[in-house]
Amino acid sequence: MDESPEPTVIMKTLKDFNQFISGGSNKGRESSFGVTGSSRQRLSFSEANASVTSDPLSFLGEPGAESLPPVSKKRHYDTLTGLDVCKRFRDKDVELLDAKSTITMLKGRLHNMEVTYKRNQAESEQELENYKRKQIRDKELIDDLQHKIKQLQTQHQEYQEEMRKVKHSCNRTTHEVESRLISLQNEHLSENSRLNEETTMLQQRVLELESLLEEKIIEAENSQCHTDELMLQLETVEMKLRESVESQHQIEVLELQLKQAKSRIKDLELKQEEYADIEKQRKVFEVSVSKLSSVERENNKLKEENKFLNDTSINTKLLEEQLMNAKQKIMLLEARCEDVANIQAKADLYKNNLKQYEDIIMDELSLSQKPTLLELRNHIAKLKKEDKSLTESINELCASQKTLVICRMSVEKENRDLNAKVDKQQLAIQQNTQIIKRLQRKLLLLTQERDRLRTILGTYEAEQTINFSIVSQEKIDKLESTLDLYREELKLMEEELDEFYKSSIEGSQPLQRRERGVRVLSLEKKLEEAQAEVRRLTQENEGLTDKVESLTLKGDYNPAVTKVLHFKNNPLAEAVEKRENDLETLQKENNALRERVKLLEEGEQSDLTLKVGMKVATEGNSNKDILELQEQISSMETRNKRLMEAFKKKSQEMREAIYLLTGYRIDSTNENQYRLTNMYAESSEDYLMFELTADGQLQLLETPFSSAQEELVDIYLTSKHSFPALLSAITLELFGKQSMDSLYSASEGEMEGELDELDENILKRATVVSLQRNNVHEDDEEDDDMEGEEEEEEENEPGEEEEEEDGDLICLD
Amino acid sequence: MAGTKQETRNSITLKGSAQLVSEFFYFGINSILYQRGVYPPDSFTYKQQYGLTLFVTTDEKVKEYLDNVLAQIKDWLEAGQVQRLVLVVTNVDTKEVLERWSFNIQHEAGFDPQSLKEGKEGNKDLKIIQKEMRDVIRQITACVTFLPLLDCVCAFDLLVYTHTDVNVPEKWGESAPCFISNSQEVRLKSFSTSVHKVDACVSYKIDD
């Protein structure tokens, strides 16, 4: 088909169609056209457009003749294309949308481009600005540098100027120095000349001095001569000096002599003076001697006078003595006069007294007259005699009293002894009464016990069927009550003992003393022991206190009294928590980093962090889950194990019990198969096999042993269908065989006596009978069977005896 | 002019004694924390007390903790229910107890809580009390010479030994006594406020 005519045709038909449908509604047509037209203009339907815009004339030209056919054509086309047009429209729409999208894309791109352009521009502007700034900075830098250069140049110039100046000054100084040098050289020269002159001068002087020296030497020689002479003179002088010394010695000696002489002269002068004194005394004596005669005369006179005076003095002395005596006599006489008066008064008194005495005597002695002295003396003698007799009688009485006192003493002693005896007797009586009391108490107890026993006996007699528990209970109760009584008794006894001890302590008998001594010794021993213990305990106490102290130092405390508190939010707790948090975060980070490393190693590169996060999260969870599950598994396993152990133990016990009770060891070999081995089997090869069928029935499988026991199998299984009976029969048979064997081999056994006369057959039959007897019970349950067997085994001996009888009966049959 | 001689009586009440003791604990604990290097030295500032230059923490958390605990201890001291205060230094990594600074508190004879409540007062010169406290703190400082070096991350905790019938506040809980299994004990000096008597002692782990 041609491409170009098709769209125009379509368009036309569409136009017509629209016109036909809408009639006058121009607006809708226009709008629909507008849409299509605009879209068409926008779209690059250049060919179609062109044909639309360019072809109308040709169309208009052409269809003049064919004004009708187009309708038919159109219809034809419609019929031909039908859905085709719609499809095409859709296609076009799709294309249109595509185009739109491309346009938007392009616009977006353009926008992007613009943005990038702007950005670039902005960047370039920025760069430009930067460059400008840089330039400015560079310019500034350059300026700075130029400035610096200028400065440096000026500095340089300055330095050069300075240099010049310095050079100038240097030159000047060199000039000066040179001129100075010249002047100094000049001076040096002049000085040299001067010095030369001086040396010459000095040489001249030296010469002069040499001449002078010679002169001086000559002079010295002369002086030497002179000295020699002087030496000679000196020697002579010395000689003279020695002489003079000697003479001096002599002079000294002379002087000494002179002194001696002078002293002598002085002595002599003294003697002379003495002589003169004596002369003067002599003269005085001569004068006194001349006066001596007159003196003697005077002396005589004086002697006479003296004698006279002496005599007179003796006379006076005598007179004085006489006077003294007279005075004494007077005194004595005066005293006597006084005494006489006193004596007379006394005499009166005595007289009165005498009278009174006489009156008294008269009265006393009942004398009619005044008694004379003799009468009185006689009377007194009489009285004395009477007195003597009376004293004698008194003495006698005293003696008798003494004897009586002694008698009383003895009597008192006896009395005391008797009292003591009485006391003793009383004590004894008391003891006896106590003993009696005790005995009475004992008697009471005994009677009570007897009564009880009697009651018990009565109960025994009364009740034929004794309930042991009640009786024993009663017995126990009664015994307890007696026990209580005995306890009281014991208490009383103890009290009595205490009293006795007290009384014994109070009493003071030698026996008790000895006992006391023993007791004291024992007590001392105890005391020592106690002291030792006290010492030990104190040491222990010290040790313990030390320990306690050290423990308290360590911080120990008594939890009953003390508790330890702390502020919950303390620095330690905070530090620990912080550390744990840090650790956790670090571990997390570590895991994340590890995962990252792993992923990197695996070659992943995009969205690493996200993946790592995911992985860590899932792994963490799964790890946790796994851990929990593992824990659960381990706990379950342990539980399982424990259960298994318990089962094993229990089953072992069970099997053991079954083996011991029934005599069969039951092992399950295969599934549902059980092997039974008898306790008394001859070999381990002898066993029975059973099978548990699906419907719960037992079957005997054939084994060598079962075939050997065919007889019993026939009896119990084929006819009676009883497995327990069969098993028991086999047991009995085997047991019988073994015991018989043991009998033959003369070994020890319980059954020796009983089985002596038993035949094997008898035994078999007996068992049969006994089993038949129990059969009713045994058929019901295996447990019952076991119990039956148990009983059988337990009561083997009596059972067998019974069987014996039964066996006999059977035999008789 | 002869001045009237005023009689100065030193009276120490139970409250005053509790105040003195808790103040001593504050400075003692700070000294231990500084001397043992539980907290870095730059978190401490110095302060004059008892005639000494003592270091006091500037760490806000520690300050708050100490204020809380010491206020409570003061209350308990006034009630006569504290037996002992223990500062435990623990290794944070291994949770092993390295040091125990124990301050044993006792009532002086005749100053049991009952008689104190009835208004009995102690009499001791404050200067003497402060001198005794100073001696104890000096000894704490001197202990650094023989105590083993703490070369691990450490933290401290304060344990209070009280009577069992004491009311436990909400923020407080019972604690383990934190014994040191292999320890060496050194008894320090003690001081007394004439009401309370405080014996100090340090026990530390011996290196094997």
UniProtKB/TrEMBL annotation, chain A:
- SUPFAM superfamilies given in the database record: Mitotic arrest deficient-like 1, Mad1 (SSF75704)
**What Gene3D superfamilies does its record include?**
1.20.5.170, 3.30.457.60, 6.10.250.90
Compartmental location: Nucleus
Question: Locations of Acidic residues compositional bias?
Answer: 778-813
Signal sequence residues: none
Give the protein family. Belongs to the MAD1 family.
The record's PANTHER family line, in alphabetical order, gives: MITOTIC SPINDLE ASSEMBLY CHECKPOINT PROTEIN MAD1 (PTHR23168:SF0), MITOTIC SPINDLE ASSEMBLY CHECKPOINT PROTEIN MAD1 MITOTIC ARREST DEFICIENT-LIKE PROTEIN 1 (PTHR23168)
State the protein's name.
Mitotic spindle assembly checkpoint protein MAD1
Q: What is the lineage of its organism?
A: Eukaryota, Metazoa, Ecdysozoa, Arthropoda, Crustacea
Automatic annotation (TrEMBL), chain B:
Gene Ontology biological process terms from the UniProt entry: cell division; mitotic spindle assembly checkpoint signaling
Top-level taxon of origin: Eukaryota
Q: What is this protein called?
A: Mitotic spindle assembly checkpoint protein MAD2A
The membrane spanning regions, by residue number, are: none
InterPro entries given in the database record: HORMA_dom, HORMA_dom_sf, Mad2-like
User: Would the keyword Transport turn up in this protein's UniProt record?
Assistant: no
Q: Where in the cell is it found?
A: Nucleus
Q: Which family does it belong to?
A: Belongs to the MAD2 family.
The protein's predominant localisation is: nucleus
The terms describing its cellular component in GO are: kinetochore; mitotic spindle assembly checkpoint MAD1-MAD2 complex; nucleoplasm
Q: Which residues form the HORMA domain?
A: 15-202
Which keywords does this Swiss-Prot/TrEMBL entry list? Cell cycle, Cell division, Mitosis, Nucleus
